[in-house]
Amino acid sequence: MTPFITSIYISTVFLFFSSSTSAIAQTVDSLKVATIKVKNLHCNNDMPTIKKRLHNQEGIEEVRFTPIEAHVSTFTISYHSSATNQANIEKAIEATPGCDDPLARPYKVKKESNHKKKNNE
Question: What is the pTM assigned to this prediction?
Answer without folding.
Answer: 0.71
